[in-house]
Amino acid sequence: MAGPPPSRPFTPDEVPTLAQETMRKAKFPMVATIDGDQPRVRPVSTVRVDGFTVYFANLKRYGKTAEIKANPKTELCYMDEEHDQVRITGVVEEVTDRALLDAIWASNPLLRRYLGSPDNPDMVIYRVRPTRVRFMREWALDYHEVALPESGA
């Protein structure tokens, strides 16, 4: 039985950059939530990324809104076409800062197209504050920790 293909080498100093490149290439992470005792995973469309702090939009009527309210702990998983992975463990919080919401709205044509107004009462913007970030190169089967600044971003 053949083993996994050889992994492209990298140094520990490259891990944060490789992780951010993977996030850019993968674009749509999967978000994990808990619905009672049932895990739920679905793709989300990010509306902003600051380092490893990820923002995504949601509609208040969607199931994940209640799931996040009941348990804000989450994990995002990005995987690009080369099978590089980034896993961001963190806590979800609703963004209420008007200046930040306006900046996200102004920079995102899809939000404007589908939701019509930044004051749409059904829209919620979430921020995932990272507590842990890990990177895995393709089929290497080893995660590498990404050091987070004290602020978590």
Characterization of the model:
- With 153 residues, the protein is of the alpha+beta class.
- It has 4 helices and 8 strands.
- The protein has helices at residues 15-26, 63-70, 98-106, 109-115; strands at residues 30-35, 38-43, 46-50, 53-59, 73-79, 85-94, 123-136, 143-146.
- Strands 1, 2, 3, 4, 5, 6, 7 and 8 form an 8-stranded antiparallel beta sheet that branches.
- Strand 1 and strand 2 (38-43) form a beta hairpin.
- It is globular, with a radius of gyration of 17 Å.
- It starts with 14 loop residues before the first helix and ends in a 7-residue tail after the last strand.
- The model has no long low-confidence stretch (mean pLDDT 91).
Secondary-structure blueprint of this entry?
Layout (H helix, E strand, L loop, with lengths): L14 H12 L3 E6 L2 E6 L2 E5 L2 E7 L3 H8 L2 E7 L5 E10 L3 H9 L2 H7 L7 E14 L6 E4 L7
Antiparallel strand pairs: 1-2, 1-5, 3-4, 4-7, 5-6, 6-7, 7-8
Order of helices and strands: HEEEEHEEHHEE
Determine the strand fraction and express it as a percent band. Answer: 35-45%
Number of helices: 4
Profile the largest sheet: 8 strands, antiparallel
Task: Identify low-pLDDT runs.
Answer: none
Shape label: globular
The beta-strand count equals 8
Cα Rg: 17 Å
Question: Level of helix content?
Answer: 10-25%
Distance between the termini: 42 Å
Structural class: alpha+beta
Mean pLDDT: 91
Task: Describe the structure in brief.
The chain is α+β, with helices and mostly antiparallel strands. It has 4 helices and 8 strands; from the N terminus they run αββββαββααββ.
